[in-house]
Design goal:
By secondary structure, this protein is of the alpha/beta class. The chain has a single domain, classed as TIM Barrel, CATH 3.20.20. The chain has eleven helices and 13 strands. An eight-stranded parallel beta sheet has the order 2-3-4-5-6-7-8-9. The protein has a three-stranded antiparallel beta sheet with strand order 1-10-13. Strands 11-12 form a two-stranded antiparallel sheet. Helix 2 links the parallel strand 3 and strand 4. Helix 3 packs parallel to helix 4. Bound molecules: (4S)-2,6-dioxohexahydropyrimidine-4-carboxylic acid and zinc ion. The site of (4S)-2,6-dioxohexahydropyrimidine-4-carboxylic acid has 10 residues, from loops.
Length: 344
């Protein structure tokens, strides 16, 4: 059994860093392991312009601890009104790397999202032309569709037609949760990739109901049954460069999670690379972790891989019950559990 694991420094291709006082807790947690991260724009109000993205970037940079290097890769939030001009400005910016599609009402702060994808046609056409990636929350929002089927239905009713209309549009299907999504990405003929979270590789939906209701295991898209987890793990460890690391670390305060209507989101930045190491080791694929965590993402986004390295050591440690988040606290993934890898 290897006792240490040296990886080229990884990146997180999907993270929520929030804003305000929380930045001072969340940015260092990400920066300790990741050189760069694709930063989600679902703030209140959402980040819909390059100007807003640059202001948000400055706030993030101000929260990077002295002596640490971290580069936030910014995104815009797609709305029914995103103009082709704004897309052109985004494509011309050194700091904006994609535009995020939230179906209106699908998840946290998605109220301003796209109501019907046809309404975003001008922006999508411009993105295809400029080569700017579309990062998709891949779920339908129709309340008549069972929540466990919303990703699968999205593939057929939204993604497949979108691919036909914009075959050269670069698409990242974010935080995939089903065997069908993994197959869609594997079989796609164009520039389609997917991110995978640690929780969807480690847990199945039983975790939400383990001896009682477990709000800290609730995220969107919701965890699926075990056969899907296995398919996702197979995709992540397959060596296929279309699959790469995106934590979707999405912290909410303890009070907002442990509530009569708990918010969706799992916080994993406290131990992200360790959690992925755990999943890859369980699949007997530790040797594939570096490509997934450090090489495939930059390749899809047209960026160079990082120069530095990180070292993980085999060491048992217990995840704290909570971490500070601004003036509040957040309960992390695997709180109170023992992990077997630790970032040096
Ligand atoms: O669980 C989630 N939380 N899924 C999302 O898509 C958004 C995120 C958040 O911002 O909290
Ligand atoms: Zn997210």
């Amino acid at each position: 059994m290897p006792q240490t694991l040296v990886l080229r420094r990884p990146d997180d291709w999907h993270i929520h860093l929030r804003d305000g006082a929380a930045l001072l807790s969340l940015v260092p947690a990400a920066a300790r392991q990741f050189a760069r991260a694709i930063v989600m724009p679902n703030l209140r109000p959402p980040v819909t312009t390059v100007q807003a993205a640059l202001a948000y970037r400055n706030a993030i940079m101000a929260a990077v601890p002295a002596g640490m290097a971290f580069e936030p890769l910014m995104t815009l939030y797609l709305t029914d009104n995103t103009s082709a001009d704004e897309v052109a400005r985004a494509a011309a910016s050194d700091h904006v790397h994609g535009i995020k599609y939230y179906p209106a009402g699908a998840t946290t702060n998605s109220e301003s999202g796209v109501t019907r994808i046809e309404r975003a046609s001008a922006a999508l056409e411009a993105m295809e032309r400029h080569g700017l990636p579309l990062l998709m929350h891949g779920e339908v929002t129709d309340p008549a569709i069972d929540i466990f089927d919303r990703e699968r239905v999205f593939l057929d009713t939204v993604l497949e037609p979108l691919r036909r209309r914009f075959p050269s549009l670069r698409i990242v299907l974010e935080h995939i949760t089903t065997a069908e999504a993994a197959a869609f990405v594997t079989e796609a003929t164009g520039p389609v990739a997917a991110t995978l979270t640690a929780q969807h590789l480690l847990l199945n939906r039983n975790a939400i109901f383990d001896g009682g209701i477990r709000p800290h295991a609730y995220c969107l898209p919701v965890l699926k049954r075990e056969s899907h987890r296995q398919a996702l793990l197979a995709a992540a460890t397959s060596g296929n460069p279309r699959f790469f690391l995106g934590t979707d670390s999405a912290p909410h305060t303890r009070a907002n999670k442990e509530s009569g209507c708990g918010h969706a989101g799992v916080y994993s930045a406290h131990a992200a690379i360790e959690l992925y190491a755990e999943a890859f080791e369980a699949a007997g694929a530790l040797d594939r972790l570096e490509a997934f965590a450090s090489l495939n993402g930059p390749r899809f986004y047209g960026l160079a891989a990082n120069e530095g390295q990180v070292t993980l050591e085999r060491l048992d440690w217990t995840v704290p019950a909570s971490y500070p988040m601004g003036d509040d606290t957040v309960v992390p993934l695997r709180a109170g559990h023992t992990l077997h890898w630790r970032l040096v």
